[in-house]
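Write out the 3D structure for:
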Amino acid sequence: MSAGRWLVRAASLAAALGLWQLLTSLDVELWLRFGQFPTVGEVASAFGDRLGTAPYWQDLGYSLRRIVIGFLLAAVLGVAAGTAIARSRWAADLLGPLMEVARPIPAIALVPVAILLLPTNEQGIVFITFTAAFFPVLVSTRHAVRALTPVWEEAVLTMGGGRLRVLFSVVLPGALPGIFGGLSVGIGVAWICVISAEMISGEYGVGYRTWQDYTVVDYPGVFVGMVTIGALGWLTSTAVEFLGRRATAWLPRPPERAPSRAVHRPATPPAIPSPAPAPEKEPVS
């Protein structure tokens, strides 16, 4: 990425922070009540104080552990189930209806089920995180596998390859762009649900601490939690996209387009095709 694009992105973030500081410091009360919001300086001061405390890093570790375990389980099982449903008629008939019924249920609505089903709150939060990321990965994998052209598979079979060779040499590599698209969506949804689950039934974690700050009317602390959640989500989604680019490095990449400049060039007449050569006459004997 060019330095100019980095500069534009930094200026956009600085402008948003400046507008926040202006509206909150002036206690603007038009329709939105910015007078009750903490200023950027208050949030920065609270953030600096939290960085030097052990509970902040403990909560960070709990949330990251829950995300990593739940997301990895969702990635493995989602890719496996999506591939099976797309490739096997039996799997589509057995698993397809169950997945379509369970998929519209919000993962956070499964908190009572997790509390009743699993022995500890920690396992319940991991289960909610897994469920949130599982269905985006499954659906993206299923569509990516079904969209593959059968020519590649037929070529491998023609050369004597078996079903496993087709799976690992054709199906999974060809579906990788779609799979990583589902993983990118899944990591974002997983963060939404893990924070919500921590607020409802957690004992530690960024979501739990943010909710505790709200109950004691510590609004700068609430915004510290929000900033932490945003930073963690950005870092993990960036890591997933980086792995996706590395795993699909063999794909052709479109070159970055430079800023278009109007260049006036003289119009060239269309090329006139040259007449076809006359056929040679056979010698007359």
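Residues 163-201 form the longest helix (39 residues).
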